[in-house]
Specification:
With about 150 residues, the chain is of the alpha+beta class. It has helices spanning about 10-20, 80-85, 90-100, 105-115, 130-135, 140-145; strands at about 30-35, 35-45, 55, 65-70, 75-80.
Length: about 150
């Protein structure tokens, strides 16, 4: 990305994804968005080229998706061509989202997504319970991510 921001220090994002995985979600996926672009985070499996890293895509099927890059287990963000080629406003929004996750604002980011789209960013289910709608995330998923 052509931002003048550090591409390292994203250990918080990697830790969160691994925490969700260790809480019983074998293949955790976090659904978010930036500037109306879907953004999905997932943990690379043990047979992947970079096991344990956090992949960032648009959520499409493998080979048909936009791959925005990965956050390595060392916390370094390696942007892919799709991220580098984003329009300036989209690039700025993606960077702001990543910055907020890096800076420990995951619970707020997850809640904002849930409130905006009416679905849980972890399981993708519709938020129907009054407390879940208010929190922007389902109670089971909230415990898995932040409990």
């Amino acid at each position: 990305m052509t931002c003048n921001n550090n591409l390292d220090g994203f250990d918080e994002v990697v830790s969160l994804m691994h925490h969700i995985k260790e809480s019983g979600n074998e293949w955790p996926k976090v659904r978010l968005s930036f500037n109306d672009n879907p953004l999905h985070f997932s943990v690379a499996g043990t047979r992947a080229r970079y096991p344990g890293s956090v992949n960032m895509t648009d959520g499409g099927s493998y080979g048909q998706n936009k791959w925005y890059g990965r956050i390595g287990i060392d916390g370094v963000f390696a942007p892919a061509e799709a991220a580098r080629n984003l329009a300036p406003t989209d690039k700025a929004e993606l960077w702001e989202l990543l910055r907020r996750l890096r800076d420990g604002e995951a619970e707020q980011v997850f809640a904002e997504f849930g409130k905006l789209f009416g679905i849980c960013c972890l399981c993708g289910r519709e938020l129907t319970n009054e407390q879940s709608v208010e929190d922007g995330i389902g109670p089971v998923c909230k415990r898995k991510a932040f409990g």
